Amino acid sequence: MALPGPLNRYLLLMAQEHLEFRLPEIKSLLSLFGGHFTSSQETYGKSPFWVLNIPSEDIARNLMKRTVCAKSIFELWGHGKSPEELYSSLKNYPVEKMVPFLHSDSTYKIKIHTFNKTLTQEEKVKRIDALEFLPFEGKVNLKKPQHIFSILEDYGLDPNCIPENPHNIYFGRWIADGQRELIESYSVKKRHFIGNTSMDAGLSFIMANHGKVKENDIVFDPFVGTGGLLVAAAHFGAYVYGTDIDYNTVHGLGKASRKNQKWRGPDENIRANLRQYGLEKYYLDVLVSDASKPSWRKGAYFDAIITDPPYGIRESTRRTGSQKEVPKGIEKCPESHVPVSLSYHLSDMFFDLLNFAAETLVVGGRLVYWLPVYTPEYTEEMVPWHPCLKLISNCEQKLSSHTSRRLITMEKVKTFENRDQYSHLLSDQFLPYQGHNSFREKYFSGVTKRIAKEEKSSQE
């Protein structure tokens, strides 16, 4: 049976990576452009074919100008579980909706896309010839057609068990492609200024999309590092700002992270990264500052806060301290000395971050951040909570067999009041997450066990 529903249906062809991140990205972008997610299926699992109801073609095009999780979108004209069902569905599609794209003055071509199977040229031609009943009056133009139509066949997800016939067949008019090329053009490998933990370009754009970053927004990263998240936000037209406790990173000083390069050059800095992509006009500033002690006046400044806090693995978790906080037995430094650096527990870091977001985001603004977790102990109750922030999505990226990080997206839903600052201490979710203060030890204990296991097996 063909899928029921309204006629403004679109078929999304999704990329097969970062599977958990796809649905929140599409939902966020539809919301940003005035649509909302409506579909016959709420979750698609691992399938690359999604059928959505979208209010207009303009919204569909805007969606594709932003998404890095989707490859293409099509106006869906027909769908079936077999060729016969597809043809029946196409015959029921209103002719008046087809005619603008099929008249005699137009040019077109038909493409075949198969997932998990390769067809011969003869098989492709046979499928195209079977569509002769459609009222095509224009001329075929394979090089520069005005309209492109596609037959898309789904042969399931198992490459070891490919069925003879497809599970689903779709036919539609191509509307637009997504922004997959950004992953290559903004690749960290080609970037001027990088660090040990510079964010992968694809994930940076996904984070900006989860945060609903748009033109003229002000986007802030309190753990800015080498500014990879600012680059993604600036690409979408946002003005960007950041802070970091590491003086050398902010000023582009010290040892280089690249192989065969000892020291950073004079023009290796965050501003230079934005300049590399023609985005320097969106650079506001980056300051050396401690995220645990924000120096901002009270007020809502930011449209989005997008960040990747340090986990204590490749970058240390630190905050500034004072002479009073120095442990006993350590000689006091002179008063002129810059405050010492103290350890910064993960639970404290994330609750400081949530409080900061609750205070400084505009209502409706989003906080997007990575939360490291020790997988055997993780439960959803461990995700930090705040009365001013609503959880939008929680997606997992595996780091190892026993650790992962979760991309948390939250939206500010009410104005911050002073009493909200310590409300997390009353929450049942505060104590569970404190167990992750030892995330670094658990991470390396797993690494140690794995190395020991490998050594043992090699000796046998």
TrEMBL record:
<dbReference type="InterPro" id="IPR000241">
    <property type="entry name" value="RlmKL-like_Mtase"/>
</dbReference>
<feature type="domain" description="tRNA (guanine(10)-N(2))-methyltransferase TRMT11 N-terminal">
    <location>
        <begin position="9"/>
        <end position="180"/>
    </location>
</feature>
<dbReference type="GO" id="GO:0160102">
    <property type="term" value="F:tRNA (guanine(10)-N2)-methyltransferase activity"/>
</dbReference>
<dbReference type="InterPro" id="IPR002052">
    <property type="entry name" value="DNA_methylase_N6_adenine_CS"/>
</dbReference>
<dbReference type="GO" id="GO:0043528">
    <property type="term" value="C:tRNA (m2G10) methyltransferase complex"/>
</dbReference>
<dbReference type="Pfam" id="PF25904">
    <property type="entry name" value="Tmrp11_N"/>
</dbReference>
<dbReference type="GO" id="GO:0005737">
    <property type="term" value="C:cytoplasm"/>
</dbReference>
<protein>
    <recommendedName>
        <fullName>tRNA (guanine(10)-N(2))-methyltransferase TRMT11</fullName>
        <ecNumber>2.1.1.214</ecNumber>
    </recommendedName>
</protein>
<dbReference type="InterPro" id="IPR029063">
    <property type="entry name" value="SAM-dependent_MTases_sf"/>
</dbReference>
<comment type="function">
    <text>Catalytic subunit of the TRMT11-TRM112 methyltransferase complex, that specifically mediates the S-adenosyl-L-methionine-dependent N(2)-methylation of guanosine nucleotide at position 10 (m2G10) in tRNAs. This is one of the major tRNA (guanine-N(2))-methyltransferases.</text>
</comment>
<dbReference type="InterPro" id="IPR059073">
    <property type="entry name" value="TRMT11_N"/>
</dbReference>
<comment type="similarity">
    <text>Belongs to the class I-like SAM-binding methyltransferase superfamily. TRM11 methyltransferase family.</text>
</comment>
<keyword id="KW-0808">Transferase</keyword>
<keyword id="KW-0963">Cytoplasm</keyword>
<feature type="domain" description="Ribosomal RNA large subunit methyltransferase K/L-like methyltransferase">
    <location>
        <begin position="190"/>
        <end position="320"/>
    </location>
</feature>
<keyword id="KW-0820">tRNA-binding</keyword>
<dbReference type="GO" id="GO:0000049">
    <property type="term" value="F:tRNA binding"/>
</dbReference>
<keyword id="KW-0489">Methyltransferase</keyword>
<keyword id="KW-0819">tRNA processing</keyword>
<keyword id="KW-0694">RNA-binding</keyword>
<keyword id="KW-0949">S-adenosyl-L-methionine</keyword>
<dbReference type="InterPro" id="IPR016691">
    <property type="entry name" value="TRMT11"/>
</dbReference>
<dbReference type="Pfam" id="PF01170">
    <property type="entry name" value="UPF0020"/>
</dbReference>
<dbReference type="GO" id="GO:0008033">
    <property type="term" value="P:tRNA processing"/>
</dbReference>
<comment type="subunit">
    <text>Part of the heterodimeric TRMT11-TRM112 methyltransferase complex; this complex forms an active tRNA methyltransferase, where TRMT112 acts as an activator of the catalytic subunit TRMT11.</text>
</comment>
<dbReference type="GO" id="GO:0032259">
    <property type="term" value="P:methylation"/>
</dbReference>
